[in-house]
């Protein structure tokens, strides 16, 4: 199978280029396996990967124009030739490795941690199964970055717009019956940038490898904000 | 070349559950703590833990920590230290509550309490009815815990060095650890971090085997760093093979699947675990189930065209339970095995999963060099916690749900110890420049130009050797050959060369450093295994089929220098309760 | 324009104005297809009806608000140099206000003449 892989090593290259590789496809081969095979052929090729089962979120790449996880994408589902590029919109460090620091910064900016102000009980804070169900589809995020780097609004304003990943997490805590910082969280999301750069383009929903729905979460935040302002 | 240097009160290498829980204690105490991780923290392998964390909360059935302790001692095949086990089982309860308070989205029972599921090796009343002790967030408990701990560290403003590789500990002539040499992966530049205390929390080393549930990053870096700093590794022959990896691929299918009511069948559709463990059946201890599966396949009752696996049947649980309690497993099965467990059984086979051994520590997280007379000498400035450490609470076999518990309890304990140590505000010791030079030499070694064997080639060869010679069943012949082969590979390391000498994000260089680590650990595993002439827990020898408490109720201790083995007695005396004396282990 | 309000308020105004625009357009289309004024005088008389006048003024206000939020979004997305953005925003603001005033004048004159 033919692969064209984006290559750029700042130590030796003046400009990026696409390099061709031939990989023999084995049964059940995932894209990550193919990339590892390419690394066997060419030690200098760099990409991030770790768990190999879609939970660590290291190996998000752009393939034939779509963001996806290498380890959960069977090569048999890909159209040949396979064009593998780094995630769009992020500065390239080397080959498929991009600088995700702005993405992480936006995550940190939404205060992604539980804030419980009442004195803590000796045992667990009680939560009904129904309330717990509200966190399904939110907490599973693996921070791979497929969504935010597919979001045009994040491309244009990565320094100011939180992006779908961080906003999904903002809603994860707003939706948690144990969290007691709703007002502060909503206030912090005000303004034209952090939340409202989302124009419901829904690339995030299309590319999330865990089938999560940031657009829906963003809608819920807006709804809650409106309710609180009335 | 001038070496960049930074100073911190505490250095933590590794940002999985143990490292992050320790960091959280330190950051909350306003200490200057640096967390070095070779991957962004939420990529650490804690993220892949599925089933849950054990604590006798008694939310489902009656339970208490003493029963939990009994199960753990029995599960360890009596090799676990009972003082540490008591400590862990008692601490489990406040630890899980603290996690919940920190935000972990545990699944819930109707009364609003944390959901607990049944797991292997759990009993009520010292070997009675099945207990339900494993606190779960669906089948993504590790993910939920790791993310929560990272989030809390964001709140506490912990200082992270993301994508820095721990190269070598700096040890002065008196044996104290002064920090570590690290490598910034993005720039390829070394950074010396001086610290009053250093905590190793680098996780496991499953990458020594070819088929493993472990991630690419699980290369035992901390263990190997300790070895090279003169610290031994303890009980390395005890490597857990998880019974249910996806056949041929190794991805994990949690024990929680059997806890929810799934069971194993062979090609005749027989529920074979009934023969091996009449009472606990599919929820027997992991070593028991793994051996049963291998035996079924060896005796020709395997499934599939090559008769090389068995089947895990789940569909009878119904769509609802599977969707609610096992959504991640369903996803993985579909992707990697091509089956929907709600319709078809999952093909499974044991996969290398967890190392019970590691850097010897006391129950407070101090790294100790054990002597054969039972005394222990603390290595000043060095702590270890998590899978890389051996407290030892898992002994010869770890129970499911006890690994998340181990990393959390002992990560926290180590954090508290470091706080205590730093209370008196000790000075930074003078840096030992000779030791720094030696550490830097480990990096410059890979700058040798010229042709040679490739890292990849040797890594592949080594992992195959380990799989063939240190797998589930171990005989003297097989392992002697293994020792010889690993020694030969260690020699060959000298001839390995890096073709790519560039600096920026050179993953080949990182893999070269990891390979050195893997081979050092591989040697510890095969040598310790060869010498232990009994069958205990995960260490199963066809040539010595029985457990031999008279001669072998002791920990193996491997030193890198001279490939020396030593032994240390098991601590059979708990902290407050009576000893659980060794008994035949039946499930 | 207070920074605090310009997220939620702009978003809400855009949606409320859209609802009005939608309803008004349906009404207008219906009116034009079944009951269209046939002469210039009929048109003037129709526009001079106070209900219609208010409806139309509201329509143009909603249209301009809607367009303003939309244009503002586009400029925030794409025009990053602050001077260029402020310049363009001012240009559009002046243009929109002028449009609004001109329309108000048209409708006002229609009612006076009637």
UniProtKB/TrEMBL annotation, chain C:
The keyword Heme applies. Membrane-anchoring subunit of succinate dehydrogenase (SDH). The heme is bound between the two transmembrane subunits. Heme binds at residue 66. A ubiquinone binds at residue 78. InterPro entries: SQR/QFR_C/D, Succ_DH_anchor, SuccDH_FuR_B_TM-su. It is found in: Cell inner membrane. GO terms for biological process: cytochrome complex assembly; tricarboxylic acid cycle. The chain crosses the membrane at residues 12-32, 52-71, 83-104. This is Succinate dehydrogenase hydrophobic membrane anchor subunit. It comes from Sedimenticola selenatireducens. NCBIfam families: succ_dehyd_anc (TIGR02968). SUPFAM superfamilies: Fumarate reductase respiratory complex transmembrane subunits (SSF81343). Pathway: Carbohydrate metabolism; tricarboxylic acid cycle. It is a multi-pass membrane protein.
């Amino acid at each position: 199978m033919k692969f064209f892989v984006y290559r750029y090593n700042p130590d030796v290259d003046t400009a990026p280029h696409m390099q061709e590789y031939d990989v023999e496809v084995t049964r059940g081969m995932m894209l990550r396996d193919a990339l590892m095979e390419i690394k066997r052929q060419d030690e200098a090729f760099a990409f991030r990967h770790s768990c190999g089962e879609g939970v660590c979120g290291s190996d998000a790449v752009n393939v034939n124009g779509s963001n996806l996880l290498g380890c959960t994408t069977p090569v048999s589902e890909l159209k040949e030739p396979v064009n593998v590029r780094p995630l769009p919109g992020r500065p390239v460090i080397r080959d498929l490795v991009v600088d995700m620091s702005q993405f992480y910064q936006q995550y940190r900016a939404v205060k992604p941690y539980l804030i419980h102000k009442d004195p803590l009980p000796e045992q667990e804070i009680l939560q009904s199964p129904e309330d717990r169900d509200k966190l399904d589809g939110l907490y599973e995020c693996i921070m791979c970055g497929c969504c935010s780097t597919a979001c045009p609004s994040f491309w244009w304003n990565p320094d100011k717009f939180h992006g779908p990943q961080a906003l999904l997490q903002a809603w994860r805590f707003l939706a948690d019956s144990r969290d007691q910082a709703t007002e502060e969280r909503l206030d912090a999301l005000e303004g034209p940038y952090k939340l409202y750069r989302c124009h419901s383009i829904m690339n995030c929903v299309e590319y999330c490898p865990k089938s999560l729905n940031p657009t829906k979460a963003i809608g819920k935040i807006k709804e809650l904000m409106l309710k609180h302002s009335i | 070349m001038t070496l960049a240097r930074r100073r911190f009160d505490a250095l933590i290498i590794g940002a999985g559950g143990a490292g992050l829980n320790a960091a959280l204690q330190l950051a909350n105490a306003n200490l200057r703590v640096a967390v070095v991780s070779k991957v962004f923290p939420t990529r650490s392998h804690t993220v892949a833990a599925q089933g849950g964390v054990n604590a006798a909360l008694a939310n489902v059935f009656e339970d208490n920590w003493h029963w939990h302790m009994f199960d753990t001692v029995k599960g360890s095949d009596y090799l676990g230290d009972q003082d540490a086990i008591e400590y862990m089982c008692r601490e489990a309860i406040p630890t899980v509550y603290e996690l919940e308070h920190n935000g972990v989205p545990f699944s819930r029972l109707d009364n609003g309490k944390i959901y607990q599921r049944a797991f292997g090796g759990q009993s009520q009343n010292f070997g009675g009815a099945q207990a339900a002790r494993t606190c779960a967030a669906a089948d993504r408990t590790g993910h939920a815990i790791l993310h929560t701990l990272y989030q809390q560290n964001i709140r506490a403003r912990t200082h992270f060095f993301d994508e820095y590789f721990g190269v070598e500990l700096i040890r002065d002539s008196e044996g104290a650890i002064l920090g570590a040499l690290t490598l910034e992966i993005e720039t390829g530049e070394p950074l010396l971090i001086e610290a009053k205390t250093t905590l190793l929390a680098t996780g496991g080393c499953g990458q020594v085997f070819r088929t493993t549930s472990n991630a690419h990053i699980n290369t035992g870096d901390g263990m190997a760093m300790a070895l090279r700093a003169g610290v031994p590794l303890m009980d390395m022959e005890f490597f857990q093979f998880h019974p249910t990896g996806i056949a041929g691929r190794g991805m994990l299918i949690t024990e929680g699947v059997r806890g929810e009511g799934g069971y194993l069948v062979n090609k005749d559709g027989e529920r074979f675990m009934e023969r091996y463990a009449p009472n606990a059946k599919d929820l027997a201890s992991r070593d028991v189930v793994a051996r049963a599966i291998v035996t079924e396949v060896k005796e020709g009752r395997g499934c599939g065209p090559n008769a090389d696996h068995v089947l895990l049947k789940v569909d009878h649980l119904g769509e609802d339970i599977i969707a609610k309690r096992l959504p991640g497993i369903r996803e993985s099965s579909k992707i990697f095995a091509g089956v929907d467990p709600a319709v078809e059984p999952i093909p499974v086979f044991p996969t290398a999963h967890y190392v019970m051994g590691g850097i010897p520590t006391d129950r407070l997280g101090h790294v100790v060099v054990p002597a054969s007379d039972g005394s222990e000498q603390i290595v000043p400035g060095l702590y270890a916690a998590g899978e890389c450490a051996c407290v030892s609470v898992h002994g010869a076999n770890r129970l499911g749900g006890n690994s998340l518990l181990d990393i959390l309890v002992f990560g926290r304990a180590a954090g508290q110890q470091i706080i205590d140590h730093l209370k008196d505000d000790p000075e930074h010791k003078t840096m030992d420049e000779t030791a720094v030079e030696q550490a830097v030499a480990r990096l410059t070694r890979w700058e040798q130009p010229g042709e040679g064997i490739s890292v990849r080639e040797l890594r592949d060869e080594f992992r195959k050797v380990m799989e063939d010679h240190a797998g589930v069943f171990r005989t003297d012949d097989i392992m002697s050959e293994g020792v010889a082969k690993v020694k030969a590979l260690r020699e060959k390391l000298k001839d390995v060369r890096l073709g790519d000498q560039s600096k920026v994000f050179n993953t080949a260089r990182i893999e070269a450093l990891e390979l050195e680590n893997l081979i050092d650990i591989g040697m510890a595993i095969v040598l310790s295994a060869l010498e232990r002439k009994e069958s205990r827990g995960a260490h199963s020898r066809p040539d010595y089929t029985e457990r031999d408490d008279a001669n072998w109720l002791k920990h193996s201790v491997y030193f890198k220098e001279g490939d020396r083995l030593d032994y240390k007695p098991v601590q059979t005396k708990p902290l407050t309760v009576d000893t659980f004396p060794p008994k035949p282990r039946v499930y | 324009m207070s920074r605090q309000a310009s997220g939620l308020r702009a978003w809400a105004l855009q949606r409320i104005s859209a609802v009005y625009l939608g309803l008004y357009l349906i009404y207008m289309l219906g009116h034009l297809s079944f009951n269209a004024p046939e002469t210039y005088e009929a048109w003037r008389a129709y526009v001079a009806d106070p209900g219609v006048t208010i409806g139309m003024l509201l329509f143009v206000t909603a249209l301009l608000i809607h367009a303003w939020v939309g244009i503002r979004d586009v400029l925030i997305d794409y025009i990053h140099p602050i001077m260029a953005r402020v310049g363009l925003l001012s240009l559009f603001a002046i243009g929109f206000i002028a449009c609004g005033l001109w329309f108000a004048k048209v409708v006002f004159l229609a009612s006076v003449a009637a």
